[in-house]
Amino acid sequence: MTAKHTDPPMNGDDFEQMVIEALTLSLLRLTCWKEGKGDLSYYRAWKGYDFDTLNALQEQGFVAFERRNKSLELTDDGFFFGDVFAARFGMALSEALNDKLHPGHEDAPSPSGFSVVDGGLEDGSAAPTPSGAHSPFDVADGTPSAAFAPFVPAHDMPGAASGAPMPYGIPLADRPTFDPTEGRRDNDTRAFRLRIDLDLEGLHPCWREIEIPATCTFLDLHIAIQRIFNWYDEHLFCMRATARGQKLWIDEASFAGSMFDPFAPPECVVVEASRIQLGDVFPKTRTAQYLYDFGDGWEHKIKVVKTIAKSSLAAPRLVDGEGDAPPEDVGGPGGFGHFLEAVSDRKHPEHEDMLAWAESQMAHPFDLAEKQQELIKSLKGDRALWAQNLAEGRSE
């Protein structure tokens, strides 16, 4: 960050400072809060970091502050790149811990980090987007230290816009290929009964069962999962599965035409969720993972419990379930545990505040009949909204 656009090659001190600034920006993003509403909203964070580093971030346009204030404002670029770096640092940490705890284990951990400006703000206004500024990881020759390459946000890699060869990262065109339509059935009348378990790390069981046509896409499945678990589609998602011996990373992170997917492990084929049907994967593959909110890290385990050979079902329907789902943005299983402790104890110092916050997050106990009706009524509108977002993304 400090070293960008300088003539001499980066030395060790420059690299250290770049790491410090990137980590600081990540922490500012992870601890920020929103003020204002709609188009007038913005994000602030406390200034409790080294002032030389904060001054460098301000000079580069990532934060704005005055000396007398205890907090600072994250600019759109600061919010965006802080988001990206938090995600990349988190993923690297998860992978390192996974390798340490489970050497030789093939299953990658759930991504950690934040949402990479993924779903807008809770009041419906647009999330910050970068102004076109260079990434804080830019350096004089466009090539960061090899040891730091895994943290570079893929969409901001030097040469990405021009199509020049990349010194690191994996362009989508260079990944393994997978044609979802290969062997796809004509007039497929199958449906699947799927059990979806949300991993709350032992807090309490939380699962749903749905029946869904084989011709529905994985994006349709995403939309259904969002409703039945009371999520609000404010963060990135992905699904992981194996089909025809290939590992699939199914998401919509690249629908806007990016050359890269910044989260998919290198061995995975990246497939757009709206272009692959459930019948392209199930029932030969009987399990999959659905990951939502790369910051909170919610992992849902999907299992095919029944294949219905001939079904007249036209849309997903909820058939069973148990357990209250967490509020959006509660902070992962750990934060949810703290939330449950506070709301269940009237004497807890945060009891009233937590109840008020849960209401603002539209969190409520699971009611099977209520969710069944909500899924039926909302599906058409949710699909239309996603269709609009995809069309707008692909036209950019």
Automatic annotation (TrEMBL):
On the tree of life, the source organism's domain of life is: Bacteria
Cite the residue spans of the region called Disordered.
102-139
Q: Which residues form a coiled coil?
A: none
- Show where the DUF6429 domain sits: 19-79
Alphabetized InterPro entries for the sequence:
DUF6429 (IPR045489), MM3350-like_sf (IPR024047), Plasmid_pRiA4b_Orf3-like (IPR012912)
Indicate the segments forming the Plasmid pRiA4b Orf3-like domain, all copies: 191-369
Q: Which SUPFAM superfamilies match?
A: MM3350-like
* Official protein name in the record: DUF6429 family protein
Q: Name the source organism.
A: Collinsella ihumii
What lineage, starting at the top, does this entry show? Bacteria, Bacillati, Actinomycetota, Coriobacteriia, Coriobacteriales
